[in-house]
Amino acid sequence: MRTNRARVGDVVCFLLAVGLMVLALVDGLAQHIAPVPLTADLVLGGLCSLGVWLRRRWPVGFAVIAGVLSVYATSASGAALVALFTVAAHRRFAVLAPIVVGYALAPFVTLLVRPDVPVASWSDTLLGVALAAAVLASGMFVRARRQSLRERAGRVEAEQELRVAEARQGERNRIAREMHDVLAHRLSLLSLHAGALELRPDAAPEEIARAAGVVRDSAYQALEDLREVIGVLRADVDRSDEPPERPQPTLTDIPDLVEQSRHAGMQVRLDWQADALSAGSAGAGRSAYRVVQEGLTNARKHAPGREVTVSVRAAPGDGVTIEIHNPYPAESSSADIPGSGVGLIGLTERAALAGGRLEHGPTSAGDFQLRVWLPWPTH
C-alpha cells in the first residue's frame, strides 16, 4: 500500500509532466508547427503523463514506452524524465544503463523522425543534458539512501536477534547454575540418609521411617527440579527479561534451609544478624541463599557428622556477609567425591557477577572457612 508521501510524490511527478507538456505546446505554437503533428504530439504526451501513475508498478516498462514516444512527441519529455528518475531510484545500475543509453540517442533519432521540429540551440541542449543528469543523479541517490536505510534496519534487526539469543542463552545458563546448587543439596541429603539406613539396619522403626521419608522427599524434589529445568532449557521462548520461576529463594529462607539440614541430621549453628530483610535486593538474597546451600552441601560431603557454623550479617549499605565454618577435611577426603570443587567455582562466579567477592580456605584454628560478601545498596 502506498503511503501519503508516495501519493504526494506521484502528484508532483504528474504535475511536472503536464507542465512540461504545456510548455511544449506553447513552444510548438510559437514555431508554427502544423496542427496534425502538433495534435499527435500532444496526444502522445498526454498518454505518457497519465502513465506516470503506473510508474511504481512497471518502472522499466513505463521508461521504455515513454522513451520511445518521446522520440516523436516532444511533449512527452517531462514524463520521460520522471520515468528515468523512477528507474534510477528503484532498479540496479545494470538495468538502468541501457535505458540511459537509449535516452541519450533519442534526440538524434528525433531529428530524423520530426524534420518539422527546429534543431535546438547549444544552450538548450546543454540545459537538457544538465537536467537529465540531475534527474539521473537524484534517482541514484534516492536508491542508495533507501538501500542504506534497509541495510541499517537489517543490521539493527540482526543485532536485536543476537542480543535476544544471548540473553536467552545467558538465562538458561543461569538456570542451569541454579539447578546445580539445588540438585547438589537435595542429592547430598538423599545420600546422607541412604548411608545412614545402610549403616544402621537395626535402627528403630521410627528413625528408619523418618530417614526413608527424607530420602523419598529429596528424590521427589530433585526429580521435580530436574524436570522443570529441562523444560525451561528446551523451551523455544524468550525468557531474557524474566527471572526463573523456580527456585526463587531469598535471605529470609536461609533459616528454613538450616532447619532442613538439622532435620537431616546435620549439626548446624546459625548466627543470624539480619533484620528487615524483606526490603533487600532479590538478586543478593538469592545469591546469599545459594552460598549457604552450597556451603552446607560441602560441609556434609567433606566433614560429615561435624558441627557447622553459619553466620549471616546483612544491612543496607554494608552489604551481606556470610561466613561458614566447618572442621577442615583431610586432603584425601574429597578425592572420591564427584564434582568436588565445582560448587566453589560456581559460587565464585556468582559472587563476581553480583559485584561481590568470595574467599575460602583453612583458618588458623584448623577450620575450613567460606566467606562471601555481596553488595546491598541503600536505595
UniProtKB/TrEMBL annotation:
UniProt keyword annotations, A-Z: ATP-binding, Kinase, Membrane, Nucleotide-binding, Phosphoprotein, Transferase, Transmembrane, Transmembrane helix, Two-component regulatory system
Enzyme Commission code(s) on record: 2.7.13.3
A Pfam match: HATPase_c
CDD domains, per the entry: HATPase_UhpB-NarQ-NarX-like
Gene Ontology terms: cellular component: membrane
Histidine kinase/HSP90-like ATPase domain ranges (all copies): 286-376
Residue ranges of every copy of the Signal transduction histidine kinase subgroup 3 dimerisation and phosphoacceptor domain listed in the record: 171-236
Regions crossing the membrane: 6-26, 60-86, 93-113, 125-142
Key word ATP-binding present: yes
Catalytically driven reaction(s): ATP + protein L-histidine = ADP + protein N-phospho-L-histidine
SUPFAM superfamilies per UniProt: ATPase domain of HSP90 chaperone/DNA topoisomerase II/histidine kinase
GO terms of molecular function: ATP binding; phosphorelay sensor kinase activity; protein dimerization activity
Name assigned to this protein: histidine kinase
Organism: Kineosporia babensis
